[in-house]
Amino acid sequence: MTASDWIDYTGVRELRGPLVVVEGVAGVGWDEFVRLKIGDGTTRHGVVLEADGDRAVVQVLEGTGGMAAANTRIAFTGRPLQIPVGPGWLGRVGNGRGEPADGGPPVTGPRTAPVTGYPLNPVHREPPAEPVLTGVSAIDALTTLVRGQKLPVFSWPGLPHLALAAQIAAQASVAGEPFCVVFAGMGLTHADAAFVRDALDERSAAGELVLLLNTADEPVIERILTPRLALTIAEDLAFGSGRHVLVVLTDMTAYAEALREVSAARGEIPARRAYPGYLYSDLASLYERCGRIKGLPGSVTVLPVLTMPGGDVTHPVPDLTGYITEGQIVLSPEMQARGIYPPVDVLASLSRLMRNGAGPGRTRADHLPLAGQLLAALARARQVRELADLIGAGALSDTDRRYLDCDEAFGTELVDQGAEEKRDLGDTLDRAWRVLLRLPRRELVMLPAALLAAHRKG
Q1: What role does this protein play (predicted)?
Q2: pLDDT attached to residue 458
Q3: How many whole angstroms from its chain centre is CA 258?
Q4: Would you say the pTM of this structure is higher than 0.90?
């Protein structure tokens, strides 16, 4: 359908928050892109949320402020919202609707793609393999991110999850293959948006970054669109241009709250904690767009970042995210209180696909046994610390004290690093060895004897 075929409708019945209810329409479909011309002559844009007979509900991307039902004309385009895709996005900064926010011209590309996208067909999926190294020791050593994986970061409010997301986006790499990052920020303050731009300026200048920033004072509808734009751009860069793409989405809790607000405006029956009953399927429609496709180069890896209100892991957003994704990286207020950055609680964290992306031929031959032994030692150290609280530190054995020493060294020598410090994997694993060798030889039962002997000599 061309612009000359569009029919202008004037039967706007109601403006309801970010929604417009229009009647007397024909041939309108769900998710159809809409142009709205308002009384002052300006044009706004929207998407059909609901179509029932001759009635349609349209969400206005720019919001309905300043609009009046009597002087609003609506044209339905007959197709879903589409954006140009291609390498032209690299090095650009856009708002949550994909419009330039860097003073440059609109992004153009060799083709357009619908922003709704589709989850990857399981039949066509290639199992995730090979690591995406983040330069962050706590992640690379113990919760290795794998190409094609979806691995969320769970954070308490007030912890430096945005700083960690920006650090990962700035430092992440794959060995010797084309790589880029798509970073989507949702509901950010202007200070946070400026921080992200500064932190990622070098990667953007190198043409390895697409940055989409939605701030808290922009329309709530835009927040729902932002991650879909990011994933649509990433899919073309990965499967059209053969790049490995890391998509960082922060904060998914802000996204879910925007979804809840629109659901309430539509008058839908609320589910748990007033979120819509389709929150699970909606999150899955985003997360499942990552992966690798058989016969095609490139991959899409998704790192969603979300805050848990009140630190409640059973809150609907982290709870449902945990069901969909393949593990989690958990930030801990206790680690933060010890002055450790990033404050990762490694015993609560897990990468279920780590064995697909670590070990011989992928990272280092000693990586997996080293990680297993280190986690076992930290679990034992936690038990010893609880025992010391009951009976006093003076009653602990020498071996118990060695475990506490190992735990302290783990936090200060392996996990703790600067917010702009990038560590290569060799340095990270060597630090892990130095932490473990504080324990007696008889305690290191998960390490092969030959491997242990080689490092004892070293």
Answers
A1: Produces ATP from ADP in the presence of a proton gradient across the membrane. The V-type beta chain is a regulatory subunit.
A2: 47
A3: 16
A4: yes
69, amino acid identity: A
- DSSP assignments along 6-28, one per residue: --EE--EEEEETTEEEEES--S-
As a whole number, the mean pLDDT across the chain is 91
Residues 6 or more apart in contact with residue 42 via CB below 8 angstroms: none
Backbone φ and ψ for 174, nearest 5 degrees, come out as: -125, 155
User: Nearest to residue 134, comparing CAs of 317, 279, 329, 389?
Assistant: 329
What was the pLDDT predicted at 318?
95
Token pair 């450790």 is found at 340
DSSP string over 193-220? HHHHHHHTHHHHHTT-EEEEEEETTS-H
CA-to-CA separations, 218 to 18, 187, 201, in angstroms, rounded:
12, 8, 23
Confirm if 328 and 311 have CB atoms less than 8 A apart: no
Rounded distance between C-alpha atoms, residue 429 and residue 366, angstroms: 8
Amino acid at 368: L
Q: How many residues does the chain have?
A: 458
Compute CA 340 distance to the chain's CA centroid, rounded to the nearest angstrom. 23
Closest to 375 measured CA to CA, from 334, 414, 419, 324: 414
Q: End-to-end alpha-carbon separation of the chain, Å?
A: 71
State the DSSP code for 291. B
Sole residue written with tokens 């690798």: 292
Question: Does the structure show a pLDDT above 50 at 21?
Answer: yes
Of the ranges 44-58, 91-105, 259-273, the best mean pLDDT one: 91-105
Q: Is 261 exposed, middle or buried, given 0-12, 13-18 or 19+ CB atoms closer than 10 A?
A: middle
Q: Residue 370: how many CB atoms within 10 A of its CB?
A: 23
Closest to 37 in 3D by CA, of 84, 5, 63, 71: 71
- Cβ atoms of 264 and 319 within 8 Å: the answer is no
Average confidence (pLDDT) over 312-338: 95
Instruction: Please state whether beta strands 12-16 and 19-23 pair in parallel, antiparallel, or not at all (unpaired).
Output: antiparallel
